[in-house]
Amino acid sequence: MPDSWVAKYTQVKAAGLIADVPVPTAFPDGLVQYPKGTDPASKDVCNWESSQCFMDDTINVAPDGVLAIGFDDGPTEAVAAYADYFKKEEIVATHFLIGLQILTCPSCMTNLVNMQPEQHLASHSFTHTQLPLMQDLELVADIGWSLQVIYDYSGKIPLYIRPPQGDIDRRVMTIAREVFGVQVVMWNQDHLDWCLLDAGEKETLPDVCKGTTLDSINTAYKGMMDASPQKGVLLLVHEIRNASQAPFRTLIAGAKEKKWKIGPVTDVDAKLPWYENAATAGVKGEAVDDILTKRKPFTVAGGGSTITLNGDWSAGAGGNTSAGGSTSGKGKSGASAGGNSTQTNGTDAGNGNGTTGAGSPSASGSGLTMSSPIAAALGAVAGLVIAGLVTLQ
Ligand SMILES: [Zn+2]
C-alpha cells in the first residue's frame, strides 16, 4: 500500500481521531464478538449488526418525500440490463461497488460509468468482508484500494461507503472518515430483493429469504410509496440478479405516481457533494496524485429524520464547483442506539452468495489502464485471502 496512506493513518491516529475499539473475532453466525469488557452497544463502539447500535454520525435516514436509492454489490452484468430503463425513466442511483468485482468484470464497470444519466459511484469495500474484523491497516488498505480502483475506471474518488452486511463500528467509521474523508451510508428500508432468483438459477438461499417473493416485495414497495406522510426512504437494493429489476420497476412506478423525489443517496441533503474531486454530476473529476482526501473531512449528523452536513466540504481543496457551503447545524446527539430504523439484520446479499466470485483475481485483458496500485491491490488481496479474511467463492 502507498506510504502516503500509512502516513495519513499514522497522523490521524496520533491526533486521537481514530476510535479506540478492539478488533472483534468472527462467530459462525456471521456476527462478531468483542473482547470481554467491550460493549458493542456502547456509543464508543456501536456495532450495529451485533447490538443494533445505530451511529447517528453516519448517513442513515432520508427526509420525508425523498427516495434515495443505493444499489449494492455491483458492478455486474445486471447493470447493462438496467441501462435502457434507467435512461428512459431518468433514474440516478448510488452504486456501492465492490473493488474485486470491478476487477472481475471490467466491462460491467465500463457500462456503469457510461450510463446515462450519470450514476453516482461509491464504495462497498474492496474485498466484501466484514470490516470490523480487520486490523487498522488492513482497513486502510481495503477501503483505499476500493477508492483507487473506482478512480482508475471513472476518474472519480468516492466520498461514501456502505459496509458489507452493514457491519460497522466506530473504529471502522473513523478510519474511513479521517483517512479518506469517506462517509458511512446505511439504509432504513430493505426488502430482500436479492432473494429473488433468476429463471433457471438453483441456489440455496438462507433462511432469511423464506416468505420473500416477487409479490411480497412488490407489496412492500407499493406500501412504502403509498404511505402518507411520505416517510423518507434510504433504500438498500442489489444489482446481483436480473430478477431484482421487476420489483424495482414497481417501486419507481409507485414513486413517480406519488411524486417522490427520486435520486442517489446524496439527495438526503442538498449540500452533500458527490465526490472528493468532483462536487456534482456532470463535473469531470480532477486528476490527483493519490486518492487521499485533501480536505478536513466533513461530518454528518443523522439519527432523526434528516441528515445535517457539518463543516465545509469545499474548503481546503482546489479547483471544484462548490457543493459544500458552511452548515453549522450540530444535529442531534445521543440517541444513537435503537432509534427509528427499520433496518433488518444480516440481509446484505453479498455474504455467502458468491457475488464476489473472483476466483483468482486477474485484471489481464480488462481494458483497464493498469496502474501499479491495482497490481499492488491484487497482491494485498492475495495477502488477505491467505490470512483467511476473504472467502472467494
Ligand atoms: Zn454487499
From TrEMBL:
It comes from Pseudomicrostroma glucosiphilum. It is found in: Cell membrane. Residues 311-368 are annotated as: Disordered. It catalyses: [(1->4)-N-acetyl-beta-D-glucosaminyl](n) + n H2O = chitosan + n acetate. Residues 333-348, 358-367 have a biased composition (Low complexity). It is a lipid-anchor; GPI-anchor. Its EC number is 3.5.1.41. GO terms for cellular component: plasma membrane; side of membrane. The chain crosses the membrane at residues 374-392. Gene3D superfamilies: Glycoside hydrolase/deacetylase. Its cofactor is Co(2+). Keywords: Carbohydrate metabolism, Chitin degradation, Cobalt, Glycoprotein, GPI-anchor, Hydrolase, Lipoprotein, Membrane, Polysaccharide degradation, Transmembrane, Transmembrane helix. This is chitin deacetylase. Residues 316-332 have a biased composition (Gly residues). Its main location: membrane. GO terms for biological process: chitin catabolic process; fungal-type cell wall biogenesis; polysaccharide catabolic process. Pfam families: Polysacc_deac_1.
